[in-house]
Structures are given as C-alpha cells and as structure tokens.
Amino acid sequence: MKQMIKFILNGEPVELEIEPHLTLLQLLRDKLELTGTKEGCGMGECGACTVLLDGRTVNSCIFPALEVEGKKVMTIEGLTDAQGNLHPIQKAFVEYGAIQCGFCTPGMVLSAKALLDESPKPTEEEIRHGIAGNLCRCTGYLQIIQAIKAVSEQ
Amino acid sequence: MEGSMKKFDYLRPQTLEEAFSLLNQHGKKAKLIAGGTDVIVLIKQKAMMPQVLISLRGIPGLDQIRYDGALKIGAMVTHRDIEKSEVIRKEFSALTDAADVLGSIQIRNVATIGGNICTAAPSADTATPLLVLGTQVKIKSLSEERTVPIEGFFTGPGETILKKGEMVTELIIPKPLPNTGSAYSKLQRRLALDLPILGVSVLLSLDKGTVSCSDMLCTTSPISSILHTMEKDELTCKEIRIALGVAAPTPIRAVKAENLMRGKKISDELLEEVANTASVEAQPRDSIRGEAWYRKDLIRVLVKRMAMKSIERVVRPEETIFPERLW
C-alpha cells in the first residue's frame, strides 16, 4: 500500500505518495527524476549514491525512502546556487582534474561537503578518512584530495 | 546490482508498545529493521524476504547515549555517534576503535549498534569490545524485560538468544575499574569498507592507584620499555578480558588466557604466554578472507599488541586520540 511522505529536498518541500519498498535512490532517480545521484554497486559499498540526510552522508541505495519523512535531503543538484553557479568544491574538482569518468563525483563531492562542514580545515589524513566510503576507479584519489585541500585553504 | 527489491510493507511505529504489537501481529512474516545496512542488503540479495518491515527509527529514546554510573547505549545509537562520543573514547576506548573502522562514514551514519549485535555476524566489529567491556544486553518484549550478559547473547553465526516478539533496547556497560585501558584491532585488507579477517579486543586493569608516567622514560619510550619498567615495579594485572572475533562460530572470550594473567605480575614473558594461550583456545576456520593457521598466528600477535595498547592507554591516555601507532 502506498504511503504519503513529506520532506525537504534541496531546500524545497516535497510531498508525494510512494510504494513502501523503494530505496531513497529509487525515489530520487525514478520518481523525482534527479539523476545526478548514481547507482554503483547497489549494496552500500561504493558510495556513488551518497546524498546528505540532515547534513550527514548516507548511501541512498540501501536507505529506505520512507525514512526521509520530515528530514532534509541534499543531492548534487542542490549544491549549485540560485544562479546555477557551481559550489566551490565542484569548482575545485574541475580545476584540479579530480574528475575523470565522473561516476563517483556526485557522491565524492557530497562526502567532501559533509567533511568540510564538520571540519573546515582537515588534515590530509582526515580528508582520506572522510572520503574512504567513496570508491574512485579513475583518479587514484590524489587530485580529489588536492581539490578538497584547496577548498579548505580558501 | 539491479536495485529493485521484492515488495514489502514498511511500518513505522512511534512507540515500543506499538512495535511489539505489530511484531506479534505479523509474526514470522515480519522483520525488525534498525539502520537497515544489513537488512536491505540481505533483501536485495534475496537472502531475506520479509513481507513486512517494522522500523524502530521513529521510536523516541532508543538513540541516546547516557553515562550515569554506567554507560547506557540505546539500541538505535549509530556507530558514528559512538565514534564521536568523548566519554566512550576516554573510558571505553575499544568501542571507539571498533565504531571508527566499521564500514564507511555513510554506513556508520546509519548502522546501529543494536543492529550490529542482532545481525550476530561472527565478524561484527562491536561484538568483541562489548565482550571485554562486560556489557549487559537489555531485552524487551510486550510483557517482559530481561537483562543478559553479552557472553550468552550469541548462539551461532547470525543467531542470538532473542525469542519471537523480543528486541534489544539497550546496552549497559559498567564503569571500568580505575587504571583500565581497552583496545580493539581489526585485521583487514583495506582501511575502510571491509570485514575483519580477525577482530581482537583486550581490556586490562592495573592495580596501582597512582600509575603515572611523568618521567621522560614513559613519555618518549616505546611501550616495551614501559612494560620493562612495570616488571621492575611489580605491577599487578587486576583484571583482564580478551575477546576474539572471526575466531569461532560466534565472538568469544579467551577465558584460559585471561585466567593466566588475572592477579599476576605483569611481564613481557607472561604476555607472550597469554597471547599463545588465546591462540590455542581459538577455533578459527579457513575462509575466503583468511586461513585458520594465519588467523591463529595473528591472534597471538594481536592479543599481545592490544594488551600493550591497553596498558599504554592507562599510562598515556592522550594516545587514545590517534590510536594508529603500531608496534
């Protein structure tokens, strides 16, 4: 039986009826057509589907959609400002070549945001720890770490 | 890979009573879900096919950490909350070690400690710290409440003493004796998102009321030198608990090894013997992550190392902030 759900998505209130077995990832991509969030492994191991839930990172592919009731969800689409300008973390990723195929990037950027919101001047060790839940098969991580470091020094 | 799941109903009770009555009403068709980082994966793998999931997330009070004489951790407390808790870091360090290496931050933000022990994997990261810390598990049903030592909680891989209609609501950990340190080591191939090849926890209490190392020797020297100094000071081990994960069908205490050490003068030689005994006591199996002989060998190494780290944490509590040093 479908259930009503109300939450804040990228700053805007959302209210809709959904099937109870949906994951948050299915809700975002299939029902709300926000395809910035990617499905990698689908088992909570790669972090490609990372979104922010009340400011904390979660793997949306194994998170029950109904549990976002009353909470704030931020996806990669919510990171740009009203004029569509990229967030400083996104700019730094572009500048430092921290993106190759791009599949891990939305999740990686949101993990970086959660890290910097909590600890604005992280050490390299803390950056590595902060993005340990996001696999990247292209960059070797160095450029990603440099980009996050650069943002923290701005 | 494909993200679709077999359909199920998803119920969100707002009180414990409501959760129990739903559990009784739906019986075997229902499964409790805490964070869901195990349950949803099992459903996706078709290893579990409940018709109804009963979520405990909306029930108030289960997600609190309180410290009033004893440490009380609600079943719905996340690993991330444990990792960030200062009181746990200072007084119950082995649990911080475990919370900090489970899965990834994304997993730790969601996965709960109650879920971790109820899934009852032999590899559960929090199981061995909870064993050495002397944890009591509070279990409730609609009409009853009981508290059991965690030693008796696990009955097999994925199996616990929980009966139909029961759930874990809280973990109660007594305040440690003075001069107590504890530590957990997870042997794994990657630094994140891995299950342990082996998990080893040790808790050690020293008998001396004034253990301090204000002299230069203790602040700069390796722990092996401190151990040597302790030998000369004839320091006694008042209490020791050793727990092993992935070393038997359930997480276990290495009781014979503990008995060798309890009440004895601390020495390097005795620690070696204790670690050897723990290794002999363990019954690991060959598995895809590691073979039995390798696990046995590493139990010997890690039991000694975690005993030394526990001692170091008594002597140099500030070291608990960065527990990564190896020796």
What does this structure look like?
- The complex is a heterodimer of chains A (154) and B (327).
- Chain A has 154 residues and is α+β, with helices and mostly antiparallel strands.
- Chain A contains five helices and five strands, in the order ββαβββαααα.
- Chain A has helices at 24-31, 88-95, 105-118, 124-130, 142-152; strands at 3-9, 12-18, 50-53, 56-59, 72-74.
- The model of chain A has no long low-confidence stretch (mean pLDDT 97).
- Chain B has three domains: 9-55, Uridine Diphospho-n-acetylenolpyruvylglucosamine Reductase, domain 2, CATH 3.30.43.10; 65-174, 2-Layer Sandwich (Uridine Diphospho-n-acetylenolpyruvylglucosamine Reductase, domain 3), CATH 3.30.465.10; 180-321, CO dehydrogenase flavoprotein, C-terminal domain (Enolase-like, domain 1).
- Chain B is 35% helix and 22% strand.
- Chain B has 13 helices and 14 strands.
- In chain B, the strands form four sheets. In chain B, strands 4-5-10-6-7 form a five-stranded antiparallel β-sheet, covered by helices on one side. Chain B has a four-stranded antiparallel β-sheet with strand order 11-12-13-14.
- The longest helix of chain B has 24 residues, at 292-315.
- Chains A and B meet through strand 4 of A and helix 2 and helix 6 of B.
What distinguishing features does this structure have?
heterodimer, A: 154 residues, Ubiquitin-like (UB roll), DNA polymerase, domain 1, 31% helix, B: 327 residues, Uridine Diphospho-n-acetylenolpyruvylglucosamine Reductase, domain 3, Enolase-like, domain 1, five-stranded antiparallel β-sheet, 13 helices, 14 strands
